Amino acid sequence: MGTTGGTKASGTETSGTGSSGTRVLISLAAAVIVLWGLGRISSIVGPVFLALILTICVYPLKQRLMARGVPPVLAGFTTILSVYAMIGALIASLWVSAVQLTKLLPQFAPQISELRDDLRMFLHDTLGIGDDQVRAIVDSIDLRVLFDTAYNLLGSAMNVGSGTVFLLLLIMFMSIDATYFPTILAVVKEKRAPVVDALSNFAKLSRSFMVMTTIFGAIVAVLNLILLLALGVPGAGLWALLAFVCGFIPFIGFWISLVPAAIMALLAGGLPSFIAVVAFYGVINSLIQSIIQPKFVSGTVNLNMTLTFLSVIFWSALLGPLGALMAVPLSLFARAILVDSHPQSVWLKPFIGDINESKATLAARRAEAKAAKAGNAAAGKGTKA
After folding, report:
1. Around Cβ 74, how many Cβ atoms within 10 Å?
2. pLDDT greater at residue 330 or residue 102
3. Overall pTM > 0.70
4. CA quadruple 20, 25, 31, 37: dihedral positive or negative?
5. Which site from 128, 172, 188, 324 is most exposed, i.e. has the minimal number of CB atoms within 10 Å?
6. Is the Cβ–Cβ distance between 249 and 312 less than 8 Å?
């Protein structure tokens, strides 16, 4: 009897474990299918999510206007126009910068040729690298690559029309529908309170991230612009704009904005300008984007550094450049849907960055250890006395 009962219990446990493992495999397979589908329609998913984030960011403006007695229709129209103005200014800046870049690069053909000769002498005479390897390295520094990049950038700016119209229409429709969101959420909350709370928290965190990143990105861009203008680096406005846009890409964006600015400084002003740009960018990035900004952003977003870095890699591979720019809000949305909206998944939060309870526990343990150490020291003095 006992043996039979033990066998049944063991069989039940094994069956339960197998069933749990099967569910995990099925969930992973479903996730792969969903992600593959998102990748296939990335040209739609990216603009839709960007429109959603922009609508979330400007929604408080509409609320404030209505609170001051502005009619809802006029408040919504003002909100839509504000977003359109920001998008229009960004597109116009990209257009002007792309045109300037295509006109700027041919002026530095002699400098690039001289730089290739200096690199060839350094690799061969100083480092002793063979002729074939030196030739392969030097040939990779081709002015045509820079030309192709510039023309592709200009072509992207010229072909942005259809995507921009789609984005602007989405923003308009979402802004109009946003009027009913509070009522809809209030009705849904009666039956799905965790889901509504998770989505509300996602909106708040995304707005905080976008606003703070925009502010700090603008500060960094202005400081970089002042430096580049002082050094006489051509295309200073373009590199400052690039620094602002790349500010939305954690960890990787800094290097994307640094490389072209440093190369242009090297071509225009030589090694001193190159060193000045690299040093200044490094100090500004370390001070503002790595020390000051995380204190305002990461504490509220609650994403650890590992997950934030992987988010940039993952979403950029799935959705392209727009995925890199929206990596943090996309991860916040995924967390809201998969974790925050399910009370049984709360235990996962500390692993993805919500370590408030862990910090409190660690502080309590340190306080206890300090008190115990002080008590032992006092006891030791009493014994000696």
Report:
1. 12
2. 330
3. yes
4. negative
5. 128
6. yes
Q: Which of 337, 326, 335, 333 is nearest to 167 (CA)?
A: 326
The encoded tokens of residue 209 equal 């991230």
Q: Token match 């295309």: residue?
A: 235
- CA–CA gap between residue 159 and residue 98 (Å, rounded): 13
The tally of CA atoms less than 13 A away on the side-chain side of residue 82 is 16
Q: Is pLDDT above 50 for 354?
A: yes
∠ at Cα 120 (118, 121), nearest 5°?
Answer: 65
Tell me how crowded residue 212 is: count the other CB atoms within 10 A of its CB: 18
4 in helix, strand or coil?
A: helix
The helix/strand/coil state of 200 is helix
Does pLDDT of 137 surpass 70?
Answer: no
- Please report the pLDDT score of residue 16 as a whole number: 46
DSSP class of residue 336? I
The dihedral sign for the CA sequence 273, 275, 276, 280: positive
d(CA 331, CA 202): 10
- The residue-averaged pLDDT of 144-167 equals 56
Distance CA 162, CA 166 (A): 6
Amino acid letter, residue 91: I
Pick left, alpha or beta for residue 199 (phi over 0 → left; psi -120 to 50 → alpha; otherwise beta). alpha
Count other C-beta atoms under 10 Å from residue 329's C-beta.
26
Long-range contact set of residues 262-271: C-beta below 8 Å, sequence gap at least 24:
264/108, 264/233, 264/234, 264/235, 264/239, 265/228, 265/231, 265/233, 266/115, 267/108, 267/111, 267/112, 267/115, 268/108, 268/111, 268/231, 268/232, 268/233, 268/234, 269/231, 269/232, 269/233
Give the 3-state secondary structure of residue 1.
coil
Say whether pLDDT at 285 is over 80. no
CA distances from 328 to 16, 51, 247, 258, 375 (A): 36, 15, 12, 21, 46
Angle between helices 143-158 and 109-121 in degrees, nearest 10: 140
Banded model confidence at residue 98, pLDDT cuts 50, 70, 90? low
Give the sign of the dihedral formed by CA 248, CA 249, CA 250, CA 253.
Answer: negative
